[in-house]
Amino acid sequence: MTQETTAERTIRPFAAVLQEIGGGKTHDRLSEQLADLVEAVTSTGKKGTLTLQVTVAPIKAGNTSTLIVTGKTTCKAPEGDDAAPSSVFFPDAAGNLTRNDPNQPSLPLRGLESPGKASA
């Protein structure tokens, strides 16, 4: 990594700063989350995101000669179709959930009898 020099100032590469935030923990976390995200995307075929939020604030109000830099990472990996299974239920008068609609009458259904063995 090289530093970029403009007419007024020398700009340190962002990657170099990122490797120093939190003693390198932010960079390590991003690297791990990126690998996990790639794995999730390739296994599900769905998109995901990895976000880095960098916050820069004075260490004390009014003292801008010392800054605290915080890196927060957020990974939203796609989940498989079975990650949140659902079923249809109906509420009854008592507030219980049931699979059968209590407002619909039941039909008097009965099972079929097995046909007898054919004699040969």
Number of strands: 6
The helix-and-strand class reads: alpha+beta
Strand content: 25-35%
- Biggest β-sheet: strands ordered side by side in the sheet: 1-2
The rounded distance between the terminal residues' Cα atoms is 88 Å
Largest sheet: 2 strands, antiparallel
Mean pLDDT: 88
Number of helices: 2
The helix-strand sequence is EEHHEEEE
Gross morphology is elongated
**Level of helix content?**
10-25%
Radius of gyration based on Cα positions = 30 Å
Task: Characterize the structure shown.
The model has no long low-confidence stretch (mean pLDDT 88). A hairpin with a 2-residue loop joins strand 3 and strand 4. The chain is of the alpha+beta class and 120 residues long. The chain is built from 2 helices and 6 strands; from the N terminus they run E-E-H-H-E-E-E-E. The chain has a domain at 4-78. Residues 77-120 are annotated as: Disordered. Residues 97-106 have a biased composition (Polar residues).
